Amino acid sequence: EWLRPVIAAHVSALTHYPDSDCAALAAAAARRYGARGEEIIAGNGSAEILSVLPRVLGKPRAVIPVPAYIDYARSAALGGMTVEPLVLREDEGFRLDFAALEARLRGDEAVFLGRPNNPTGHVCGGAELRAFAARHPETLFIVDEAFGDFVENFDSLTRERPANVLVLLSLTKAFAIPGLRLGCAVAGAALARKIREQLPPWSVNVLAQAVGVAALEDAEYLVQTRRFVREQREALAADLARVPGLHAYPGEADFLLVRAAAPLPAAPALAARLLKEGIAIRVCANFQGLDARFFRVAVRTARENARLCEALRRASGAHPAPAPKRRAATLMFQGTSSNAGKSVLTAALCRILRQDGLCVAPFKAQNMSLNSFVTRDGLEMGRAQVVQAQACRIEPEARMNPVLLKPNSDTGSQVIVMGKPVGNMNVGEYIRYKPRAFEAAKSAFDSLAAENDVVVMEGAGSPAEVNLKRHDIVNMPMARYADAPVLLVGDIDRGGVYASFVGTMEVLAEWERAQVAGFVVNRFRGDASLLKDAHDYVRLHTGVPVVGVVPYLADLGLPEEDSVTFKAEKSHGAHADGGKVDIALLDLPHLSNFTDFDALRIEPDVTLRIVRTREELGRPDAVILPGSKHVAGDLAHLRASGLADAVAELAREGRAEIVGICGGYQMLGRRIEDPCRIESDGRPVDALGFLALSTVMEPEKTLRRVTCRHADAGLAVRGYEIHHGRSLYDESLTPMVVREDGEVIGVGRGLVWGSYLHGIFDADPFRRWFVDRLRERRGLAALGLVVARYDLQEAFDRLAAVVRERLDMGQIYRLLNL
Fold first, then answer.
1. CB under 8 Å, gap of 24 or more: what pairs does 411-417 form?
2. What Å distances lie between residue 234 and 92, 120, 305, 790, CA to CA?
3. Alpha-carbon distance 381 to 573, whole Å?
4. Which residues in 650-669 are b (16+ Cβ under 10 Å) and which e?
5. Using N-to-C axis directions, what is the helix angle for 643-653 and 631-641, rounded to 10°?
6. Which of 484, 497, 510, 663 is the 20 to 30 A CA-CA neighbour of 477?
7. pLDDT band, very low/low/confident/very high, at 564 (cuts 50, 70, 90)
8. Chain centre distance of CA 737
């Protein structure tokens, strides 16, 4: 991941000639390979060094055990050397025969050896080769360790190097930078000086030198590379062995030499067939010692290796492996920042695809939000995926949001996995837990992908959070697991959206950049045709197109994903419109489930104000205390801000209706105890004292969908419970909200009441009854009938119509391979 930053940091240096001595690079190579600086030769790839060797070796003969890298013989022949191949025996696995080699040595030769050998991958022993070279001091040994970085526990001859050994090294292979070209060699100081004199000046450019220094110091990358290559090579070799007619030779590099026999065709015909399927193999017929039966394959990812083996099985005429379970097409929205609009766009695409007749489901591996929901089977999940499921016209399931984090402090959260709490964790604890969380997320995704045509995925925050990328489980790692093209969403309303696109791409690793298939400009106000130059610039800079410009959509009528937008809303002072009722919603530091009150916003005769200070409260018709993830902390906030006293004054006057939902309901009581320290330090807390109610926090969380009856209204209300508290009330209070099973989950007295029922205001008849009661106390006539329907389905259709028009849906379907 350091490659792009290193190159970017040295672009300005391209106005200068590079250091012709490659001093910094040579010093780094000397440290890495255990040599002296004067023994290091740097070149524009090791092939450049190889090409000048015959001119300075002073040896008329080149002995080359074959099969071997073709350029050994080519360079030797061009340099006037007589090339003498030593054909290794196939029945011995093409392993180096030291006795046969020794019989060829006279002292006037250079021996070219690949270690590991290309194309066999065989590595001759370091100790054996050192001893052999020591017995033949007049022979010069050119040992090519270009692929040595792929071999675990590799014994490089750069250390304890015999005087008559020159070691060729490559950085372009292990660090995957063949287009940059960088290699070096280690030799005796006198020979190294002669070789440097034959190389063109400034052959190693500024960028290659800078990258080389960084690469030579990055040992951890090579450790990871060797482990990955070994694991995938062993798995690939085992799979190839199960293909009729194939024999893979054991090797230790990042490739395997394979021999094909009946029922498979010869390698050239096989290569032509595979190429039609988008798979390239290296036919080895032009390697001396091999013929048209042989080919070489690279070790790639598990998915690519499996694809190769499946294609080879088909080519052999063998029955293919059992078809994998159906896997949905995937697409993921990620953002340049939080609140860029990816949740809404995910919902929009879900509805569009559903309208087009596809079975579609939403998915977000990990959500951080206090805005949660209870599924039909009593599991907890984030509200954003609930909304997206509604856009798909399917029942929300915890699989759609397998990991939910509910912050309960500045540094800690309750962690919910597959709908059930697994504990409260601080940041460090959760980072250690994340591998388990990721496994749960992948399992949930696999299950959804097996049942649907499309899974529309959502990321979190930004994939460019460099402090979080190392343990990210929701953005690029999840996209890679799901094989999901990524659309990066930017909010142009904030400004700097194109710089955000370019900047995000700049800090992504190459594999992450490869996941990004397009950009979406969101919340644009104006003529989109004016953005063409900006779009051209972004594509020129990143190679990625803008696939849509979505306009600013006010009053969508859809619940927000989290409290970012809610917290950003301006608070308002006393409302003076005599034609509307005034409802004050108290903002809390740990406010949860703020979407409980979205339905009140659609009523034409209601002003819903967010209130954060005593001065703003005024004299509303109703005050709502919302849910809270930290009731004790939010009670302290209400007292410190003066809002507790102001609400108490309104309660004493008996004019304003005081309503508490969930945590707000607990605040209306007299006392809250938390002996298990679910939300607090365990000390009892005095609540506001408006109701004769006491609450005890319990470890087992109540999670259920319920249907209730509101006693005063005589109307059915539906919603869900999410709480740790168990509240007890005395006989002076009236049961207000009663479940179908008879359990009381809300009580009140006079104009003060509360309930554990989230979503109570979503029911149109009850909400109108509630508003009409406020109207009457204000001296206004009750309307007596429902005037606004809280129907998200119409909102989804409106959203889908706009987004369908503004996204390049042809490109979207191509990305989905549909």
1. 413/368, 414/629, 416/372, 416/380, 416/381
2. 20, 15, 11, 58
3. 34
4. bbeeeebbbbbbbbbbbbbb
5. 80
6. 497
7. low
8. 43
What would the two tokens of residue 817 be?
A: 């391979």
Catalytic residue annotation? 662, 758
Task: Specify the range with the lowest mean pLDDT, choosing from 62-71, 321-330, 462-471.
Answer: 321-330
Angle at 620 between CA 617 and CA 625, to 5 degrees: 70
- Determine whether 29 is exposed, middle or buried from the number of CB atoms within 10 Å of its CB (0-12, 13-18, 19+): buried
Closest by alpha carbon to 592, among 398, 752, 405, 766?
Answer: 405
Q: What is the DSSP letter of 362?
A: E
Give residue 575's pLDDT band: very low, low, confident or very high (50, 70, 90). Answer: low
The rounded distance, in Å, linking the Cα atoms of 335 and 329 is: 20
- Compute the 3-state secondary structure of the chain and give helix, strand, coil in percent, each to the nearest 5: 40, 25, 35
- What the block records as the tokens of 366 is 């990990």
* 347 neighbors 458 (Cβ within 8 angstroms): no
| Structure tokens belonging to residue 652 | 């004493």
State how beta strands 627-628 and 183-186 pair: unpaired
Residue showing tokens 């604890």: 429
What would the 3-class secondary structure string for 251-298 be? CCCCEEEEEECCCCCCHHHHHHHHHCCCCCCEECCCCCCCCCCEEEEE
The count of C-alpha atoms lying within 13 angstroms of the C-alpha of 607, restricted to the half-sphere facing its C-beta, is 17
Distance from the Cα of residue 11 to its chain's centroid:
29
Distance CA 280, CA 291 (A): 18
pLDDT band at 791 (very low <50, low <70, confident <90, very high): confident
For 167, the 3-state DSSP assignment is strand
Which pair of structure tokens corresponds to residue 811? 């490109």
Residue 562's pLDDT is 58
The residue among 633, 635, 661 whose CA lies nearest residue 719 is: 661
Cα separations (Å) of 217 from 37, 39, 232, 339? 16, 18, 25, 39
Residue linked to tokens 């010869």: 266
Cα–Cα distance for residue pair 151/223, rounded to 1 Å: 10
Mean pLDDT score of the chain, rounded to an integer?
Answer: 94
Residues in the chain: 818
Q: What is the pTM of this model?
A: 0.82
Q: What is the pLDDT of residue 559?
A: 76
Tokens 């440097």 belong to residue: 196
